[in-house]
Amino acid sequence: MSDIPRRTARRTARLATLPLSYAGRTALGVGRRLGGAPAEAIAAEVAARTADQLFAVLGQLKGGAMKVGQAMSIFEAALPEEVAVHYRGALTALQDAAPSMPAATVHRVLAAELGEDWRDLFRDFDDAPVAAASIGQVHRAVWGDGRDVAVKVQYPGAGDALLSDLRQLSRLARVTGSWRTGIDMRAVTQELQDRMAEELDYLTEASSQRAFARAFAGSEFFAVPDVVTGTGRVLVVEWLDGTPLSTVIREGTPEQRGQAANGYLDFLLAGPDHVGLLHADPHPGNFRLLDDGRLGILDFGAVNRLPDGMPPAVGRLLGLALGGEDTADHVLEGLRSEGWVRQDAHLDARVLLDFLQPFLEPARHDRYRFTRAWLRKCFAHVTDARWQPVIAELDLPPDYLLIHRVWAGGLGVLCQIGGEVETRAILEHWLDDLDLSR
C-alpha cells in the first residue's frame, strides 16, 4: 500500500464491494443449499468470508471507512453469537492493527513535518509500525535524550479520505442490516464527521493529551504518556508498555479482566471531573493494562469538552430511575426538561420506566459483571416492536450526543472485557447528584 486511495470514485468502488460481495456469497450459498449442503455450514462460510473481506477493505481504505469499522467492532458483543464468532476477529483486528503504509511514505511525512534532518532528532527509529489504525500509524523510536517514544504519523491524504468515506458509508447499511443490532450507522457517520477535523490536527490532540497527563500525573490508577513534540501530522509521545486491552479481552485472567474493567469505567467518568474533557474514542486499541494494575490511555484525538464536568442531570435522573414507580413521574419530567423526551410527547411515565429497566440493571448492584448476553438483551429490547411507541417520543439532545456515543461504546467494551465492576461505588464517586440510598 502507498498513500490512502483518495479519489471518491475509487474509494466508493471499494466500499461497494462489501454489500455486492455479500450478496454474491449469499446467492452462492443458496445454490449450494439447493445442491444439498447443510444450511449451518453454508451460513458459517458466508459469514467467515464476509468478515475477512470486511477487514481487508476497511483496513486498506483506512480513513472514515476504518473509523466506522472500529466503531462497529465495539458493538460486536451485541451480535448473536453464531454471527459474532465470525466477525469478532476481523472487527477486533481493526481496533489496533491494519495494513500499514511503506517506510518510504513514512519518511516522506516525517521530512515534511519535522525537517529533512528528522533522523537527527532520534537515536533510533523502527521503520516497522507497531500499530496501524484509521488516521495514522505508530512507530517505536528512541528520542535524542534516550527516552523510548511512540511516533504517530498521519497517512497522506487522510483528510480527503475521511470526507469521501463519510459521504459514502451508507452503503455499509446493506451489510450491517443483517446483523439486526439496531445501530443507526447514518447517525454514527454524521457524528464522526463532526469530530474528524479535530482528530486530523495532531496539535489539538497534543493539547488534550497534555491536559490529561497533567491531571493524572502520579495517579495510582491511570497512566497517560507525556507529549514530547508534535506537528499537525506527526505526534511524538513517551512510550507506554502494557498489555493491550484487546489481548485482555481475548485471553485475560479473571484478575486482569477485573482490573481492566474497573479502570476503564473509572477513567471514562474521571476525565470530565479532573480534566473537563471526556475521552471520546473508547475502543480497546486505545488502552493498556500495566503490570502495576494501572490503566494506560493512548490516543486523545477525539475528546468532548465538558468544562463543568458531567451534566449533574445524569446522576440525578439515574438515581430517580432506580427509585421505582414512586419516582416515575419525576423521571419523565426530568428527561423532558433535558431534551431526552419530546416536549409534546404523550408518554405514560410508568411505561417509560419499564422501557428503561434493562439498562438500569448494572447500577442496581454493588458489583456487576457486564456480559455479551446482557448487551444482546438490551439490543433486543430496543428493537422489540412493543417499545417503538416509546422510542418514537425520545430524542437525543445535541449536548448529549457524544456523551451518549461514548457511554454506549464503553458499555460495549465492558461487555467484551467481562470483568466484575464495582459499579455503584464508581458511579456514586463521579456522578454529581447521584443518590443510590433509596
Characteristic terms for this protein:
6-stranded antiparallel sheet; 14 strands; Phosphorylase Kinase, domain 1; 4-stranded mixed sheet; 18 helices; elongated; alpha+beta; 438 residues
Class from helix and strand fractions: alpha+beta
- In round numbers, the mean pLDDT is 79
Q: How many helix segments?
A: 18
Strand content: 5-15%
In angstroms, what is the radius of gyration? 22 Å
Count of β-strands? 14
Total domain count:
3
Structural commentary:
It is a single chain. Residues 9-48, 53-67, 83-87 and 173-183 have low confidence and may be disordered. This protein folds into three domains: 8-96 and 159-196, no CATH class; 103-157 and 200-238, Phosphorylase Kinase, domain 1; 312-430, no CATH class. With 438 residues, it is of the alpha+beta class. The strands form four sheets. Strands 1, 2, 3, 4, 6 and 7 form a six-stranded antiparallel beta sheet that branches. It has a four-stranded mixed beta sheet with strand order 5-11-10-8. The radius of gyration is 22 Å and the shape is elongated. Helix content is 54%, strand content 11%. The protein has helices spanning 8-34, 39-61, 63-74, 81-96, 103-114, 158-168, 173-176, 185-200, 202-215, 245-251, 254-274, 312-321, 328-338, 349-360, 372-383, 388-391, 401-417, 423-430; strands spanning 122-125, 131-132, 136-143, 148-154, 222-223, 227-230, 234-238, 243-244, 277-279, 287-289, 295-297, 303-305, 368-369, 420-421. It is built from 18 helices and 14 strands.
Please specify the SSE layout and strand pairing:
Layout: H1 8-34, H2 39-61, H3 63-74, H4 81-96, H5 103-114, E1 122-125, E2 131-132, E3 136-143, E4 148-154, H6 158-168, H7 173-176, H8 185-200, H9 202-215, E5 222-223, E6 227-230, E7 234-238, E8 243-244, H10 245-251, H11 254-274, E9 277-279, E10 287-289, E11 295-297, E12 303-305, H12 312-321, H13 328-338, H14 349-360, E13 368-369, H15 372-383, H16 388-391, H17 401-417, E14 420-421, H18 423-430
Parallel strand pairs: 5-11
Antiparallel strand pairs: 1-3, 2-3, 3-4, 4-7, 6-7, 8-10, 9-12, 10-11, 13-14
